[in-house]
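A.,

Following up on our hallway conversation. Structure tokens first:
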């Protein structure tokens, strides 16, 4: 293991810190794209290779659900510990270790998909390990670049981070499909024997994912990333907090600062109302937009791909916009709530648009608003939470904001079974608009950017 980075309580100089962030962002972009490739390829492996028959639909549904659940539960359960360790350990070494572990996991995935019918529980363990390592990496990464980037540039940096996921959503399916088809092309065109001998290109996708993590590790190894000094853990300090005490600090901090709690609960409500789109959009295409698709000579698959592409393209456009603009320099809460209101209206419109073109336009607008509100929210949290607390606070923030996602998904499935999916999208969007608009009138929310301690009691840690 390389030596730890020098610790520092202050960000690097503005230019050097920004250059370091750009290198860090580039390495993350590569690994996110690699993970998108392997994620898409894994779904293809389950649906086309492992459970290809119509009679295997229950087994396929169970495999998809269990692997997704394994990832989510591991990420949620591991978040408090990951956050506490991100505030205790050298963050550069933590990211480097996670990148190397992810590379090893990708190598293990290559071996799994090359073997004959491995048990599904091995894939559940694999996705759980990915979720756990990803949580530790995310805790170290999210708390690192606020030490590199000046407060004025935080919205721009966060906008750049938002573009990663949308760009991966646009590029990964096409690139993964190309990789998956390479062995067949090799067999028909006298390609290399090792390539022609593969059933499909799924192992190639996992191998490239592992390579992307290895490159990311190499970049991180070469960077100087400061970690904050914690006086309470210094050698000779009295009453050093335990790891368990550190895991409770995030809750104490957030509960003592009401404006941040209100912001967090607003996002939890929005996640409740929007997390069901993964269930509702396929049903909307199949049952509501089917006549329009048929009139245009399009298939259901094409219609669904159009909506997903619209969401990713909108997200990419919004991320590029906030990156170029830099976001609001003050009253950033307006950069959260106004796009949130507009996104709710767009979701409502997507439920009643009636045609695939107008539905895709509404979804694309929703996608544009999402990185703008997320980037401003992240900037508020990074500015309000001291660097030495961010790991512990952000892990609790993630738990509270995202625990409503599985709840919202389940509720959407129940409602969609009884009502038209467009109606569910309409009312969920209107509720999101109302919740967000009411927060514009909330006096507590307007104090969310006040100096620490001005709107809530100080937290002793």
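Then the amino acids I'd put at each of the 461 positions:
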């Amino acid at each position: 293991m390389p030596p730890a980075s020098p610790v520092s309580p202050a960000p690097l100089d503005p230019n050097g810190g920004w250059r370091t962030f750009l290198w860090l962002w580039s390495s993350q972009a590569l690994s996110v794209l690699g993970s998108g490739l392997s994620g898409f390829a894994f779904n293809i492996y389950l649906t086309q290779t492992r459970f290809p028959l119509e009679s295997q639909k229950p087994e396929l549904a169970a495999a998809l659900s269990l692997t997704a659940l394994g990832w989510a539960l591991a990420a949620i359960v591991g978040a408090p510990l990951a956050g506490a360790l991100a505030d205790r350990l050298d963050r550069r070494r933590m990211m480097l270790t996670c990148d190397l572990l992810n590379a090893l996991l990708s190598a293990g995935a290559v071996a799994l998909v090359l073997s004959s019918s491995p048990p599904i529980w091995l894939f559940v363990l694999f996705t759980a390990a990915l979720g756990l390592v990803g949580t530790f990496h995310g805790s170290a990464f999210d708390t690192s670049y606020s030490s590199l980037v000046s407060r004025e540039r935080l919205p721009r940096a966060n906008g750049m981070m938002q573009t990663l996921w949308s760009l991966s959503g646009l590029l990964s399916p096409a690139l993964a499909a190309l990789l998956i088809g390479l062995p067949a092309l090799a067999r028909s065109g006298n390609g290399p024997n090792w390539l022609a001998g593969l059933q499909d290109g799924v192992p190639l996708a996992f191998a490239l994912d592992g390579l992307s993590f290895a490159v990311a590790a190499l970049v991180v190894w070469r960077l100087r990333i400061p970690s904050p000094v914690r006086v309470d853990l210094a050698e000779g300090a009295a009453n050093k907090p335990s790891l368990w005490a550190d895991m409770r600090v995030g809750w104490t901090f957030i509960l003592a600062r009401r404006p941040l709690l209100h912001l967090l609960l607003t996002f939890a409500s929005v996640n409740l109302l929007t997390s069901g789109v993964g269930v509702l959009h396929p049903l909307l295409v199949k049952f509501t937009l089917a006549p329009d698709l048929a009139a245009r000579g399009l298939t259901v698959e094409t219609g669904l791909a159009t909506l997903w592409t619209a969401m990713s393209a909108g997200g990419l456009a919004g991320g590029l916009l906030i990156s170029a603009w830099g976001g609001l320099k003050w009253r950033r809460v307006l950069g959260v709530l106004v796009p949130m209101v507009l996104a709710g209206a767009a979701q409502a419109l997507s439920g009643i648009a009636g045609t695939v073109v107008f539905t895709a336009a509404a979804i694309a607008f929703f996608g544009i608003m999402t990185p703008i509100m997320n980037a401003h929210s992240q900037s508020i949290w990074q500015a309000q939470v001291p660097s030495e607390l961010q790991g512990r606070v952000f892990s609790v923030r993630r738990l509270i904001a995202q625990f409503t996602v599985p709840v919202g998904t389940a509720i959407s499935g129940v409602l969609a079974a009884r009502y038209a999916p467009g109606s569910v999208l309409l009312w969920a969007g209107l509720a999101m608009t109302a919740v967000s608009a009411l927060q514009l009138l909330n006096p507590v929310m307007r104090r969310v950017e006040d100096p620490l301690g001005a709107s809530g009691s100080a937290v002793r840690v």
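The chain is about 75% helix and 0% strand. Curious whether your intuition agrees with the design.

B.
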